[in-house]
Each structure stands twice: as C-alpha cells, then as structure tokens.
Amino acid sequence: MEDLEELYQEIILSHNRSPHNEGRLDPRTGEAEGFNPLCGDQLTVHVREGGDGRLDAVRFTGQGCAISRASASIMTQAVQALPRAEVDRRIAEALEMLTGREEPEIDLDKLGELAALAGVRQFPARIKCATLAWHALAAALKGRDRVTTEEG
Question: How far is CA 90 from the centre of its chain?
Fold first, then answer.
C-alpha cells in the first residue's frame, strides 16, 4: 500500500512539473473557466470537438496547486480523441471516484494515471482541487463559460 501511495505522489508531482496539454487551443469550439474559491485555483479548459463526435483536442491554462494542475494534465490525456458519450462517462467516473460516498475500486489497467487522483480522497480539503478541471471540462462541453467548485 505504501508503494502505491508513493506511485500516486510521483505521478501527481510529475504532471505538476511537466503538465501535458497545457496552453491555449486555437481554434476551439468551447472553453470554460473553473474557479475554486476555497484555495484560489483557476483553470480554463479549452476544447475542440470534431464533426465525427469526438473530442479532437483538450488543453488547459491557469494557475493552481500541484493537485489541480496534475488533475488537469491527467484529464486531458484521459479524454483526448474519445467520442463525446465516452468523455461524459469519464467525467462522471472521475467525479464519482473523487467525491463518492463509497471507497472506489481502483482498476489500474483501466484507469491508468487517473488512478493517482484516488489518493486525494485521503485529504478532503484537496478534493475540490482535483475536481476543478473535470467540472470545467463538463462546463465547456455544455457551452457554459464559467463554473466554480461550489456549483459543479
């Protein structure tokens, strides 16, 4: 178990140091700013949906703690090039894993680096940091331009 926690920490630190898909996206079909008023994290998620119903590209910009930046980086990799229905399912699964009442069953083969975010559940004050990018992605795909962790 200790080895798994060390792995989770290393994945989060790695994504914070060298985030994937960070930067503006042009052209884009949507974007939404996400704000966590509890700690001041602010991320904007940029999306481009293709004519085939897939999420062609997703990127993020902004400032935040290591957990919010790592979550955004991991999220961009987890949803890139997926059909919209699958993206919506991944968002729901990630939010359930982070905020659900039941302890999640972690399938490393299925979740990959996304499993690292499950470790955040041990720190309730940081859960909103981890969900911020996911809420912003959902908002961008629904045509909303702003969301906070207080409204989801």
Answer: 10
Instruction: For 92, list phi and psi in degrees, rounded to 5.
Output: -60, -40
Cis peptide before 27 (omega within 30 of 0): yes
- Kindly state the tokens that stand for 21: 């898909």
Q: Using one digit for the tens of pLDDT, what is the confidence trace for 70-99? A: 999 999 999 999 999 999 999 998 998 888
User: What is the topology classification, in CATH, of domain 2-148?
Assistant: Sufe protein. Chain: A (3.90.1010)
Do the Cβ atoms of 146 and 31 come closer than 8 Å? no
Q: Which helix (H) or strand (E) holds 108?
A: helix 108-111
Query: What are the φ/ψ torsions at residue 50 (nearest 5 degrees)?
Result: -90, 165
52-70: pLDDT as tens digits:
989 999 999 999 999 999 9
Q: What is the pTM of this model?
A: 0.91
